[in-house]
Amino acid sequence: MSNDFNQIIKNTISQIYGVHNTEVVYNMPIIQYLVKKTKSANKGSKSRGGFGNLYAIYVLVEDYIAKGYPNIGNYSQSEGAKFSYLLARQRQLPFGSKLQNHALNHRFNEEFKKFFPTIELIPIIRDAENNHYWFNEQLLVVNLGGQLYNISTLIIDIINKYVDAKQNAMNSFLGKCEEMKLVSNTNTNEVYNFIVSLLDKNVDARLFEIVSYSILKYYYYDIKIYWGYELDRLVEENLTLYKTGRTNANDGGIDFVMKPLGRFFQVTETIDFKKYFLDIDKVAKFPMTFVVKTDVDMNTLNVEIEKKAYEVYGIKKVVDTYLKSIEELINIPILLDRFEETIKVGYLNNILDEIIVQSKVEFNV
């Protein structure tokens, strides 16, 4: 998106509350939260959308408006919104079909507190026993010249404009993919450079996972193994990589599975090695391959992992168990090397096709 979305937020405020009130409304904590969470609108489709927390705000504020509370008041007597309704509504929204309960239950409140540690207000109020939710009305009211105004419709407007921006960016990205498909037989360098750009450290984690999968799928595609239960009855089978579901899913740390070897792959954008150990624990220390969105040298990664393991556990036997559970580390340079190997055997177009298919599935196109 060519325009600065921050300026779009300011313009939206000015249109509703006037230029002289723009800064006051703009500096409200909930608006500042939206400013932070919508920065990716300026970075196109390749940056993280952050819809989980935004949609937690959206569905609660939307319910607040639908029930007339900006006008009738008395929200403190409201029975709140049912969790089942809120989650279903989130999943009706663009990019939201696979959202889970994390943002509504704790993730948004935790991030809000991280951004605004001096603010004591809890944005999402929850009755855990009855699964009813409210949005803290104090965050929705601003004093402008001695008169109180409710900004709930402004919040909905900003999030809608952000969603439109991300949808336009995604359509543009998929259009670029289709364009690459058309020139793939005549200009392989352009296609190569396009796919390499999708492995940048700043790319959306979901897109990085899709491109990593597409490359690795065809890297292993022609590798054969021979296996069986009897020496004279061995079976020849190609290694096949399967994507287990949506990205960022709560799937116990398994993003790809390889048949027939049964290898587990986890894609991560962090070098917080405690998370690696957590993923290993989730699968009972079954060996895992980590695909890491980093340019950090592999030797450095290995040294840092061992160092962190000793800091966390301190016992050599325990540390060795975790280290043995890391079957392989694959960073961006290794992915690029494997990408080039797949191109040499003629799989450039296949990789591009796989990226298009997986992107359409992931982004509900």
Structure characterization notes:
With 365 residues, the protein is α+β, with helices and mostly antiparallel strands. It folds into two domains: 5-166, no CATH class; 186-362. It contains 15 helices and twelve strands. A five-stranded mixed β-sheet has the order 8-9-10-11-12, sandwiched between helices. A three-stranded antiparallel β-sheet has the order 1-3-2. A hairpin with a 7-residue loop joins strand 6 and strand 7. The two termini are 19 Å apart. 32% of the residues are buried.
Can you tag this structure with a few keywords?
365 residues; 14% strand; 2 domains; 3-stranded antiparallel β-sheet; alpha+beta; 12 strands; 15 helices; 52% helix; globular
Radius of gyration: 24 Å
Round the mean pLDDT to the nearest integer and report it. 89
- Beta-strand content: 5-15%
Number of DSSP E strands: 12
Oligomer: single chain
The low-confidence parts are none
Topology:
Layout: H1 5-17, H2 22-26, H3 29-37, H4 51-66, H5 69-72, E1 81-82, H6 83-92, H7 102-115, E2 124-127, E3 132-135, E4 141-144, E5 147-150, H8 152-183, H9 188-197, H10 205-219, E6 224-227, E7 235-238, E8 240-243, E9 256-259, E10 263-268, H11 273-282, E11 288-292, H12 298-312, H13 316-324, E12 326-330, H14 332-344, H15 348-362
Parallel strand pairs: 10-11, 11-12
Antiparallel strand pairs: 1-3, 2-3, 4-5, 6-7, 8-9, 9-10
Compact overview of the structure:
This protein is α+β, with helices and mostly antiparallel strands and 365 residues long. It is built from 15 helices and twelve strands.
